[in-house]
Write a structure and sequence with these properties.
Strand content: 15-25%
Largest sheet: 13 strands, mixed
Order of helices and strands: HHHEHEHEHHEHEEEHEEHEHEEHEH
Number of helices: 13
Radius of gyration: 21 Å
Shape: globular
Helix content: 25-40%
Distance between the termini: 36 Å
Number of domains: 2
Structural class: alpha/beta
CATH topology of the largest domain: Rossmann fold
Oligomer: single chain
Number of strands: 13
């Protein structure tokens, strides 16, 4: 069977859904299955510990600070909006920002190419992947993608030596890359699941890894304080010293994906009619790490939608986005970059913004120009 064939993708999707239920549901069956996988989780942790120590020893300092925006769980937690918001905040202080990312989902990531790739707003999404292109469009910063984050950073500096700082979209576990500050984003609704490492749970590294980071951001719903996951982490790690704050994505405008025009939140004519009569019909689609977060946000705008979730980084086709005057389709900005070439004027994307704590921005400003620190090789107690 060829990689990427429809049947292969279906199997991957089913496997993905199986593990999500295993990791995040609290049923007796899920707990028992997770316990059965703990020996594999222990093996994974041992390999990860060795890999971290080996790569940290080979880490090579760069000429500018590196800020990591990552997570310790599998799947989306809202890292990309944090990267975009941080780049905007630093640019407001006249800081020259460069960004590195993997380019997941694009052909460059799937190929055997070694050389990193510079992504611009004009790069094809099929080459760059959705997240890298969205970052390039939103920040207008130089963005370089590569599976090897250190090579991506070195290449970025070789073509833009005037940079003051590099932000890494993901890359917390890429220990060959020196870092000046680490930010971990946690999806407050999902939390850390059952708190086990792969494959028994969703953790890429043990929860004790949070003791080494500088900031933990709880990505919350607008009406959620973030206290539940914050208290969970504090209970498990009573000695955690990093800064913690809650952030949330707030809708700020609409993008007509077909026409590529921006509109204020209450401006679209279909929106008022829908709120008053439930016509036209609305379908909300999302191919992100936690699509329910987008569906909940749409509901807060007074929109009653039929929700349709796809796997994260789903490669949209025209028949996935069939819309007309009687059936409006809504999507995220991340989805919109993949649909711009075939969407019509009845397809809309919800633009959101995120306000970072000023203390976090100040911390990043403080490390710019100061000596870097290597990734810690501290061996914390392991949770089985």
């Amino acid at each position: 069977m060829k990689k990427g064939s429809p049947l292969s993708k279906t199997r991957q999707s089913l496997l993905h859904q199986f593990f999500l239920k295993l990791w995040y549901q609290q049923s007796l069956t899920s707990r028992l299955l997770s316990l059965c996988l703990l020996p594999l989780a222990s093996l994974y942790q041992s390999i990860a510990r060795i890999r971290r120590r080996h790569q940290s020893q080979r880490a090579k300092a760069l000429s500018v600070p590196v800020v990591i925006v990552g997570n310790i769980t599998v799947g989306g937690t809202g890292k990309t909006p944090v990267v975009i918001a941080l780049a905007a905040a630093l640019k407001a202080h006249n800081i020259q920002v460069g960004i590195i990312s993997r380019g997941y989902g694009g052909s460059h990531d799937q190929s055997e190419r070694i050389k990193p790739l510079l992504v611009s707003p004009q790069t094809s999404v099929t080459i760059s992947g959705d997240e890298a292109l969205l970052i390039a469009k939103e920040t207008l910063c130089p963005v370089v993608i590569s599976r090897n984050r250190r090579e991506a950073a070195e290449y970025l500096l070789s073509i833009t030596p005037q940079l003051d700082v590099i932000i890494s979209d993901d890359g917390l576990q890429h220990y060959q890359l020196y870092r000046s500050l680490e930010i971990v984003v946690v999806d407050n609704k999902r939390g850390l699941g059952n708190q086990y490492c792969l494959p028994a749970g969703p953790l890429r590294e043990p929860i004790e890894r949070l003791e080494d980071v500088d900031w933990v951001l709880f990505n919350t719903q607008i009406d959620d304080t973030g206290d539940s996951t914050r208290q969970l982490i504090t209970a498990v790690l009573p000695t955690i010293k990093c800064q913690r704050a809650s952030v949330s994505l707030k809708p700020n405008s609409w993008l007509n994906v077909g026409l590529q025009t921006c509109h204020e939140l209450d401006e679209p004519t279909w929106l008022k009619a829908h709120r008053e009569t439930s016509q036209p019909l609305v379908t909300a689609i999302a191919a992100i790490g936690n699509p329910q977060r987008f569906f909940d946000t749409v509901a807060t705008l007074g929109i009653v939608a039929n929700d349709l979730a796809f796997d994260d980084h789903h490669g949209y086709a025209a028949d996935d986005v069939e819309a007309d005057a009687d059936n409006i389709v809504l999507m995220t900005s991340k989805d919109a970059v993949k649909c711009a070439s075939f969407a019509n004027k009845y397809v809309w994307a919800l633009n959101v913004s995120l306000q970072l704590p000023q203390a976090l921005v100040d911390d990043v400003l403080n490390v710019i120009g100061k000596p870097h620190k290597a990734a810690s090789t501290k061996n914390s107690p392991i949770k089985n």
